[in-house]
């Protein structure tokens, strides 16, 4: 059998080991809580990143749509400007034609005025 001193020594070691196990278990529990907290934070950050990516993608799609609208509008504007230029040229041509046709009349009118003045 074991002597009392050896039994006391073994009991002291047992208590020390139990205390160490308890301390290690507490550390494990604390680390587990910390791990869970960090995991929740990671999910939150991940969710935030995903939402920002979605916002960025939506903004990019909106920008692309607006760019396409601007291109279409610019093309329409260029067509209208070309049509306007054509119409302006046509108006200028018609004005020239009008003036050309009025000139003989103006000459007759001036001749009549000169004749009237000469009579007086």
Concise description?
With 120 residues, the chain is mostly helical.
How many helices in DSSP terms?
Answer: 1
% residues in beta strands: under 5%
Q: Sheet bearing the most strands, described? A: none
- Tell me the helix content: over 70%
Count the domains. Answer: 1
Order of helices and strands: H
The tally of strands reads: 0
Oligomer type: single chain
Low-pLDDT ranges: none
Mean pLDDT: 90
Describe the protein's architecture and organization.
With 120 residues, the chain is mainly α. The protein has one domain. The chain is 97% helix and 0% strand. The chain is built from one helix and no strands. It is rod-shaped and about 165 Å long. The mean pLDDT is 90.
Please supply descriptive tags for the structure shown above.
single chain, about 120 residues, mainly alpha, rod-shaped
What secondary-structure arrangement, pairings included, does this model have?
Blueprint: H1 4-119
